[in-house]
Amino acid sequence: MRPSPHEGSVTMSTRQPAASPDDAGNPQSFMNGSRPFFIRVPIFLALWTLLALLLAFQEYEIHLVVYSRAELYKEAAAWLIHFYLWAALLWFVWKVMPHFPLEGETWKRDLLFHVPFGLAVSVAELAIYVEFIKVLGVAPPDTVFQRLFLWNLSTDLPTNFFIYWTFVAIFRGVDYYERYRERELRASQLEGQLAKAHLQALKAQLDPHFFFNTMNSISSLMHRDIEKADAMIAGLSNLFRLNLRRGDAQEVTLSEEMEFLEQYLELQQLRFGSRIKIDVRTDPELHDVFVPSMVLQPLVENAIIHGTANSSDSMLLEITAREHNGVCRITIYNSGSRLAENFKPGLGISNTRARLQWLYGEKSSLQLNNLKAGGVLAEITLPMRKQQVQRLKAYDPREYSSLGSGR
């Protein structure tokens, strides 16, 4: 412990207010962190001053008991000088640390620097401290600088040297922690970018898959019904326009998805005519719920293929969207053929399931089941996430009134 100015010296605790994680990081972040400079400095000085005053008051009480005399002003002045000097010197230590970080292959060279530099800082702090307490009248007026300095040097140099290395260790710890945070943040960002790239790749696979299937449908009509083929080409252009308007968005509202699906169903109605009866029912409260872009088209395409595969009879295609136990439940039912026991999902269904997993994890599901009464039911469950501001007009089921007419 450094004696009071009455005894010729003053001490300082080796503890410093802990730096917050936000203040840690590269050398520039010590004074130029996320908080403004004019806010950070007063907060630091206020805490630094409070600690100095608490220690000064503690020593004042001790001297009253031990020596029966003490001056609070001198005790406080001595501690504040000591603390402020260390605050200034430690700022220079922080600036030096990036150049001599005590790590890697240069740790021996860095150690050879820090030992004399730490001694120099410790001696400089004592010399400046002694000069200040003389100038401010904290030390007795007849005190000789050289005698007071040598006395402090002999008693407090080890303490100062220990303080220096304590803060070197603190700065190294802060730097390691900041690097760890940066690695975690970078890993999180890379993981997010990977997920986004994966989703875009899955969606990119759906686009040509859908295009080629639709072109095959048009090709099958070219030799039988030119007018219908021409109408399908016009409908396909509308689908591309809607798809381009979405851009790279992985999610759209249910109303937007139904608008896209409407165009697709019109194409299929042109192709199959009266063989398909379509019934679409959606809860108006779900129009603003987010769903994956192009989540329904592969399932509807699968339903139509299986529903018309082995029969020339008309099939029923039912599409519903309702809230069920707090989740969005979308079902697609097709009458007709059932799924084979060895059924393996194609590209469209596989990608749809993968996108659901990437976007929502365990909060979503996609199931395809044969029904006892006949036909197949595809069921999607999604979390209820709604858009606050509607981007496109809401889907109106009445717009489908003509789809089941077999035109």
Any overview of this molecule?
- The protein contains 8 helices and 7 strands, in the order αααααβαββαββαββ.
- It is an alpha+beta fold and 407 residues long.
- It has 2 domains: 21-190, no CATH class; 225-405, Histidine kinase-like ATPase, C-terminal domain (Heat Shock Protein 90), CATH 3.30.565.10.
- The chain has a 5-stranded mixed sheet with strand order 2-4-5-7-6, covered by helices on one side. A two-stranded antiparallel ribbon has the order 1-3.
- Helix 1 (37-66) packs across helix 2 and helix 4 runs antiparallel to helix 5 (226-246).
- The longest helix has 78 residues, at 145-222.
Give a short account of the largest sheet.
5 strands, mixed
Task: List the strand order in the largest sheet.
Answer: 2-4-5-7-6
Q: What is the number of domains?
A: 2
Number of strands: 7
Inertia-based shape: rod-shaped
- The CATH homologous superfamily of the largest domain corresponds to Histidine kinase-like ATPase, C-terminal domain
**Helix-strand sequence:** HHHHHEHEEHEEHEE
Q: Which CATH class of the largest domain?
A: Alpha Beta
Secondary structure layout:
Layout (H helix, E strand, L loop, with lengths): L36 H30 L5 H25 L10 H29 L9 H78 L3 H21 L4 E3 H19 L3 E7 L7 E3 L4 H12 L6 E10 L2 E8 L12 H14 L4 E6 L5 E8 L24
Helix pairs in contact: 1-2, 2-3, 3-4, 4-5, 4-8, 5-6
